[in-house]
Amino acid sequence: MAIVSSDPLAHLYRAHHGWLHGWLRRQLGCSHQAADLAQDTFLRLLGRRSADLGEPRALLTHIAKGLVVDHWRRQAVEQAYLEVLARLPEAQAPSPETRLLVLEALCRVDAMLAGLPPKTREIFLLSQLDGLTYGAIAERLGTSLITVKRHMRNGFIACMAALED
After folding, report:
1. For the segment 107-116, what is each residue's pLDDT rounded down to a tens digit?
2. How many Å from the N-terminal Cα to the C-terminal Cα in the chain?
3. H-helix or E-strand containing 97?
4. Buried b / exposed e across 45-64, counting CB within 10 Å, b at 16+?
């Protein structure tokens, strides 16, 4: 005898998982990655128990598209990191555990930066990567010092929020 659930999410999963997996497989070109992201999509939906399920495929597609973007972004960060590692002498190469920790940190920083408004991101990177002073940034961008400080504050707040996640 089959167990029938009255849970709307269980019904949504049974009714749309196959379709979502197929859609993701076409997007990613890999059935295994598609299966992982399909599961992640439903997990995200589970975390939003109050979500409106009136247009289930639109909601699933919306969530899955965000996960696909995150997937491609993570792959790009990982590829860039591996290219840097390949240039290191073997004696300086980090352990596999360290590689994983660094990669996870890089992905979190990348996601945090991607979530910043473009002007805040630009100012934050000029300060933190290029080492410019706030005054030099204001002069370079033709903006006020107080504006640079406000964007930097917002950038630091985003960093702190990313650390709490």
Report:
1. 888 888 888 9
2. 43
3. helix 96-114
4. beeeeebeeeebeebbbebb
